[in-house]
Specification:
Layout lengths: L2 H10 L1 H11 L6 H23 L11 H12 L3 H9 L5 H31 L16 H15 L4 H26 L5 H7 L9
Helix pairs in contact: 1-3, 1-4, 2-3, 2-5, 3-6, 6-7, 7-8
Length: 206
Amino acid sequence: MRMRSYIDIHKGLTAFAVLAMMAAFDQWGNPTAWVYLALHGTYGLLWVWKSRIFPDKSWERQADLGHGLVIWFGLTLYWIAPWLITSTGVQAPYGLLAAAISLFVIGVFLHFTTDMQKHTALSLQPERLITTGMMRRSRNMNYFGELLIYFALATLAMHWLPLLVLLGFWVFVWVPNMLRKDRSLARYPEFETYRRRTKWFIPFIG
């Protein structure tokens, strides 16, 4: 199977996994669990939808079962947050719930809009460096959006472990991918000028 298939199936199952945890720990009356289900479950469904409409070519590579299981193990680490919420009955303050929802919505907008622009631009002009729109101030706005999404989800558990998982993904997955992307874009003559006027990751910082 392609890497995309393993990722899509796992993300599509997220809502069912969180529901199973809510059932196992009888958390039907926990507002935090419901908010988490709504956010992460919806994100999983949106990801599968996005994958069908404007897929990321980097996930089109073939992956054997061993590689697929590694992908599944890594993505399952994101389920630590709902496990903590449901197994310990975490109930986040309303202010944190509101902040997480807002941060999540901003993250989805940045992540999906950037991926859509990249897919459309490369479809129309495959060999042109994208320097406008969502790419105008940050070379990795999609990863920044994804960081906001998972940070919002992690904070709902009110525990350090989901934040440690997110840090691990940033260090061992996202940073290498972003560095690899810069090396690939360096083939364009105008990249150096673009690099100097943009931020590597977080807009307006660094």
